[in-house]
């Protein structure tokens, strides 16, 4: 099962979902796969208006559309997927935000795009599964950069030494940007166990099996740490979660 947002689930005429290892692209979104824009995520700030199926978007980390029948998604594996919808379901958006995007303002860029024709007060947002404050250890320099650069409480940014709380930072930024409501879907990509797997069913017969079994999500960080100990383990290429949203076609 993919994760869903209670807030977005109330909106008519849209379908959304946050991918997991079981369904990298949520099952509910798979019928619309052929409409996906072409894109390359680069931890940047560029947001593209999508007006046609399979649109070539180039390098971009945010996508906005008012056109029914075009699936917008972002790939993540520890970064934040943030999905947006106007409350009437007539416009939707998706953002990929890692620490760079959060620090440098991609959520504010999306708010600015929305405010060109409307108001974030008419929109809601949902933050999907990402590296949690429980696991996201970083350098003290990066914590300092966030605490000095953002107008947010120091303990919200870093609730324990050398850890960042990316979901909490995104939540606070979205409320500052005027969104009517913001919720969370899913949990920490690094430590959440796979609800389908019990320890007794784990058999380490292959490197891929050893890497992928036992957790709910693909995690870049977890994979990287394991590969330091066992270089034979595969990377996460092709195994990122996709999270997305579509205005249903008429
Ligand atoms: Zn965790």
Overview of this structure, please?
There is one protein chain. By secondary structure, the chain is of the alpha/beta class. It has one domain (6-193, 239-247): CNF1/YfiH-like putative cysteine hydrolases (4-Layer Sandwich), CATH 3.60.140.10. Helix content is 25%, strand content 21%. The chain has eight helices and eleven strands. The strands form three sheets. A six-stranded mixed sheet has the order 3-5-8-7-9-10. The longest helix is centred in the middle third of the chain and has 12 residues, at 106-117. It is globular and about 50 Å long. It starts with 5 loop residues before the first helix and ends with a strand.
Search tags:
globular; binds zinc ion; 3-stranded antiparallel β-sheet; 6-stranded mixed β-sheet; 11 strands; 250 residues; CNF1/YfiH-like putative cysteine hydrolases; alpha/beta; 8 helices
Sheet having the most strands:
6 strands, mixed
Radius of gyration from CA coordinates? 18 Å
Strand % is 15-25%
Tally of helical segments: 8
- Mean pLDDT comes to 94
Find the count of extended strands (DSSP E, 2+ residues): 11
Shape: globular
At the fourth CATH level, what is the homologous superfamily?
CNF1/YfiH-like putative cysteine hydrolases
CATH architecture: 4-Layer Sandwich
| Helix proportion | 25-40%
Q: Extract low-pLDDT stretches.
A: none
CATH-defined fold name: CNF1/YfiH-like putative cysteine hydrolases
Structural class: alpha/beta
Strand order of the largest sheet: 3-5-8-7-9-10
Bound molecules: zinc ion
């Amino acid at each position: 099962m993919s994760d869903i947002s209670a807030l977005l689930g109330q909106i008519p005429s849209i379908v959304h979902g946050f991918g997991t290892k079981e369904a990298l692209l949520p099952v509910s979104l798979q019928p619309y796969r052929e409409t996906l824009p072409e894109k390359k995520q680069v931890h940047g700030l560029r947001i593209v208006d999508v007006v046609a199926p399979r649109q070539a978007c180039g390098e971009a980390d945010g996508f906005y559309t008012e056109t029914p029948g075009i699936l917008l998604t972002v790939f993540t594996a520890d970064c934040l997927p943030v999905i947006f919808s106007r409350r009437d379901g007539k416009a939707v958006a998706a953002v990929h935000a890692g620490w760079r995007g959060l620090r440098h303002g991609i959520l504010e860029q999306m708010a600015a795009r929305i405010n060109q024709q409307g108001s974030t007060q008419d929109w809601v947002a949902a933050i999907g599964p990402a590296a949690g404050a429980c696991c996201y250890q970083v350098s003290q320099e990066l914590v300092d950069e966030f605490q000095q650069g953002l107008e947010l409480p120091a303990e919200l940014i870093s609730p324990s030494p050398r850890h960042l709380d990316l979901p909490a930072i995104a939540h606070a930024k979205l409320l500052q940007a005027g969104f009517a409501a913001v919720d969370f879907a899913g949990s920490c990509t690094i430590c959440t166990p796979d609800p389908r797997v019990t320890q007794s069913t784990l058999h380490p017969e292959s490197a891929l099996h050893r890497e992928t079994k036992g957790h709910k999500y693909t995690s870049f960080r977890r994979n990287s740490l394991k590969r330091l100990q066992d270089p034979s383990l595969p990377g996460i290429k092709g195994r990122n979660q996709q999270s997305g949203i579509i205005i249903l076609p008429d």
